[in-house]
Each structure stands twice: as structure tokens, then as C-alpha cells.
Design brief:
- The protein has about 250 residues and is of the alpha/beta class.
- It has a single domain, classed as 3-Layer(aba) Sandwich (Rossmann fold).
- The chain is about 30% helix and about 20% strand.
- The chain has 7 helices and 9 strands; from the N terminus they run αββααβαβαββαβαββ.
- The protein has helices at about 1-20, 70-75, 80-90, 115-120, 135-145, 185-195, 210-220; strands at about 50-55, 65, 105, 125-130, 150-155, 170-175, 200-205, 225-235, 240-245.
- The chain has a 7-stranded mixed sheet, sandwiched between helices. A two-stranded antiparallel ribbon has the order 1-2.
- A hairpin with a 4-residue loop joins β8 (about 225-235) and β9 (about 240-245).
- The chain is globular, with a radius of gyration of 17 Å.
- The relative contact order is 0.14.
- It comes from Pristionchus mayeri.
């Protein structure tokens, strides 16, 4: 309960101190995974670290080292709890997520933890990590540093049909902490409509910070997607959802 309370306090501090200083030059950027800001708020010190070491899977020796940069990349340049919860869920045997030989797309990849971890600890046939142009250099550095086999691609949620992957089939689509910016909900839903077939399984991990965040999942269901909540992680206050087109 203390950990969850601290997480919620951090969210409130983010809103109080970070959002007023958002760089307005990025106001037209369509992806909710890329917003620039600066802050020196003490409780957010973990985001000021230049590297993060994450243990993944059941092997305590299996680690991913991630470069992060709060100042240069904003929210897309730091590691959020939703990414670690999503990775843990996907790799747990009891989750029964079939990754062997599957094609996987990660949306709004940021540092790329889910894509990197799946490359190192499972056997998909293809992994594609997508991001806005500004975030691609950091994403690519993390992939190379961990010797992961992951493709990267530019993906604009405002025009997903123009992406080089628009005609590709993906068995799984992943997203970590993408559901928080209401003006991007419609863009994200449209992106899923373009990239997901009825056979595609979608896994999102996110906090439900406000009632508007639940609205995203309601809107997705209204557009013909089955939405199921699979997991609630009390320690991080993160939910994992499974979605699929009907």
C-alpha cells in the first residue's frame, strides 16, 4: 500500500510540476509517447539517472541495461513501471502468452524494454519497435547495446497507413503507458484499426490515473474490439489489458 501511495504521489507531482513546463513547440506532435519537459522535482530522481538496469524473466542474471535521458526525450526517454509490468506478464509461464514464431509490434516504444526483453528471452519470428523520429536514436542505441534483434520504424499515429509497416501482419501488438493523453486516444485507436487484424492480439499495460483513461478502453470496445483486463499489479498500480478485434 505504501508503494502504491508513493506511485500515486509521483503521478500527482508529475502533473503539478511537469505539465506546466511542457515544451509548446511539441504541441502538434501526434504521438502521446513523446512530450518534452524539464524538471528537478526530487521524487522523480530515478528519471534523472542516465542508465537503468532491469532484471527480466525468471533468471536473476537476465538483465537489460537501458540508456535514458529525461531532458532530451521527455516521457519517451525514461523507463516507466508499465513497461516492466508488461514484460513480466508476457514472460511468465502462467500468462500462457505464445511468443514462439510470432511477429510482434511495439507502439510508442520509448526505451524499448518490451521489444528488447522479448528478443533476448523468447523466440518471436520478428520484432518491430516503433517510435516518433525524435525518439528513434535513443531506441536504436538501447537495442544495439543489448544486442537485441529488433527492427525499428517511424510510426506517426496521425497517419499510420503511410508507415512502411502498414501492410505487415502482426500476431501481437504491445503498448506500455500509452493511455494518458486524451487528445491522442482517437489517433491511437485509429492506429490499432489500421495495424491490427482479427487475428492480432493486443496487450497494453497502463495506469488508470483518471476516469478519462478508462474512456480509452470503452471507446476501443465501442469500435469493435474485445477488451479484457487480465492483471492488476498492486505494487506499481499498473493494469494489463488484452484486446482483439471482433
Amino acid at each position: 500500500q505504501i508503494t502504491r501511495l508513493f506511485s500515486n504521489v509521483m503521478d500527482l507531482l508529475t502533473i503539478a510540476f511537469i505539465l506546466p513546463s511542457i515544451d509548446t513547440s511539441m504541441a502538434t506532435v501526434p504521438s502521446s509517447a513523446l512530450v518534452l519537459y524539464t524538471t528537478d522535482t526530487a521524487p522523480l530522481a530515478r528519471f534523472r539517472e542516465t542508465t537503468r538496469k532491469v532484471t527480466v524473466g525468471n533468471d536473476p542474471q537476465a538483465t537489460v541495461i537501458l540508456e535514458q535521458s529525461w531532458d532530451e526525450y521527455g516521457v519517451a526517454g525514461v523507463l516507466w513501471d508499465s513497461a516492466t509490468v508488461l514484460v513480466d506478464f508476457l514472460l511468465k509461464p502462467e500468462s500462457a502468452v505464445d511468443l514462439n514464431g510470432k511477429s510482434v509490434l511495439e507502439l510508442g516504444s520509448g526505451l524499448g524494454l518490451p521489444s528488447i526483453a522479448l528478443s533476448l528471452l523468447s523466440s518471436p519470428s520478428r520484432i518491430v519497435a516503433s517510435e516518433q523520429p525524435l525518439g528513434l536514436p535513443l531506441l536504436n542505441r538501447n537495442i544495439r547495446a543489448n544486442r537485441a534483434i529488433v527492427e525499428t520504424v517511424e510510426l506517426d499515429w496521425a497517419s499510420p497507413s503511410s508507415s512502411s509497416i502498414s501492410s505487415s501482419h502482426f500476431d501481437l501488438i504491445l503498448g506500455a503507458d500509452l493511455v494518458y493523453k486524451e487528445e491522442a486516444f482517437e489517433l491511437l485507436i485509429n492506429t490499432l484499426e489500421v495495424l491490427a487484424t482479427p487475428d492480432t492480439i493486443i496487450y497494453f499495460a497502463s495506469r488508470i490515473r483518471y476516469p478519462k483513461d478508462r474512456k480509452f478502453y470503452r471507446n476501443l470496445a465501442a469500435r469493435g474490439f474485445r477488451v479484457n483486463r487480465l492483471l492488476y499489479d498492486r505494487e506499481t498500480d499498473v493494469y494489463v489489458y488484452k484486446m482483439q478485434r471482433e
